[in-house]
Write a structure and sequence with these properties.
By secondary structure, the chain is of the alpha/beta class. It has two domains: 210 residues, Rossmann fold; 111 residues, Homeodomain-like (Arc Repressor Mutant, subunit A, Orthogonal Bundle). Helix 3 packs parallel to helix 8 and helix 3 packs across helix 9. The longest helix is centred in the last third of the chain and has 19 residues.
Length: 342
């Protein structure tokens, strides 16, 4: 995992330093982790939580992390792989620092009022609490994520946004919001755990752990899981939602605004009025902004050349791309990369 991969988490550092007790801060004392495992979770999400911690202990030659497995009632918890995992019952007085909720399928059945009450009782006693895969649904239903930024698995993002309007739902691979954290699935959870190791114990150990799994971090925390969410627009303006969906799928080969309008059964003027009414900008400006932000993500998350990035963002002219990029972000692509590496 090279310098670029290590630096992709830099966006979080300044915000995290505001929380002195945040677990994502430099600290040498062992961190005690409780993992709340619900039935019908997948094994990969569970392993993504535990194995990076285990590897960190081995690479550090001491126990920098400790963990124990819990469930609402204790006993063996069946996973989707037909393997059962032994757990302890989660009590209202935890003896660990942080709780990670791992969940998968049949969430409605497994999310009982007793469990939600227990999560609300436990949360104030912890330094941090988070959910991975289906776990964010439990935290959201308990009310713990109200006013926070969160994500969940990409298949559920739009429904999650709709059900929990008090949460700032984003499409990021993982989020950290105060003492709360969420991850969209098993692989983003590995990213999250590597970030935890890096922030607490340094980039060298995080690199060593990633190397043990032959794993290269190629996505930043804020890399989207899906194109722009359009479920809410679908109610008010289905044609606008249709156009934005096409834009999200056509970044590398962008169609003209006239073509987008025609595909949606609108005149170009009609499409422009629709964008102005709903989004306060023209379709051309919206599409250009979307493409430039994809270029910015590629600049920070990959080692692609500026020329290749310009092509992936739908620019046939390198000069036009360079001018548009500087106008949008106030610096060149090269300067942006240099700043983040620093």
């Amino acid at each position: 995992m090279g310098q670029l991969a290590v630096s992709i988490f830099a966006n979080y550092d300044q915000a995290l330093m505001k929380h002195e007790e945040n677990i994502f801060s430099p600290e040498t004392n062992p961190l005690s982790v409780g993992i709340l495992l619900l039935p019908d979770s997948n094994m990969l999400s569970l392993a993504a939580c535990i194995d990076p911690l285990r590897a960190a202990n081995r690479r550090a030659d001491r126990n920098v992390f400790k963990w124990r497995l819990y469930s609402p009632d204790g006993g063996d918890v069946p996973l989707t792989s037909a393997i059962s995992v032994a757990t302890e019952a989660l009590t209202a007085r935890p003896d660990f620092d942080v709780l990670i909720v791992v969940a998968g399928f049949r969430l409605t059945e497994h999310t009982t009022p007793t469990l939600l009450r227990r999560l609300r009782d436990v949360a104030p006693r912890l330094r941090a609490i988070g959910g991975v895969d289906g776990g964010p649904w439990l935290l959201a239903r308990s009310g713990l994520l109200d006013g926070q930024t969160a994500t969940t698995h990409w298949e559920d993002l739009e429904e999650f946004t709709d059900v929990f309007p008090a949460i700032n739902v984003v499409q990021d691979r993982f989020t950290i919001s105060g003492k709360y954290f969420t991850a969209g699935g098993a692989i983003p959870t590995i990213d999250l755990m590597l970030h935890l190791i890096q922030r607490r114990l340094g980039a060298k150990l995080a690199q060593s752990v990633a190397g043990a799994f032959i794993y290269d971090v190629v996505q930043s925390p804020s890399a989207p899981q899906l194109p722009v969410s359009t479920q809410r627009l679908q109610r008010n303006s289905p044609k606008l939602a249709q156009v934005i969906t096409v834009m999200g799928k056509s970044i590398e080969d962008p169609p003209s605004i006239a073509t987008l309008a025609r595909q949606a059964g609108l005149t170009q003027r009609g499409l422009e009025l629709l964008f102005q009414k709903q989004l306060r900008q023209s379709p051309g400006a919206f599409f250009l902004n979307h493409r430039l932000h994809e270029a910015r993500r590629l600049a920070l998350d990959t080692a692609l050349s500026a020329h290749d990035i310009s092509l992936r963002a739908g620019f046939s002219s390198q000069a036009v791309f360079a001018r548009a990029f500087r106008r949008e972000f106030g610096m060149s692509l090269r300067d942006l990369r240099h700043m983040h590496r620093q």
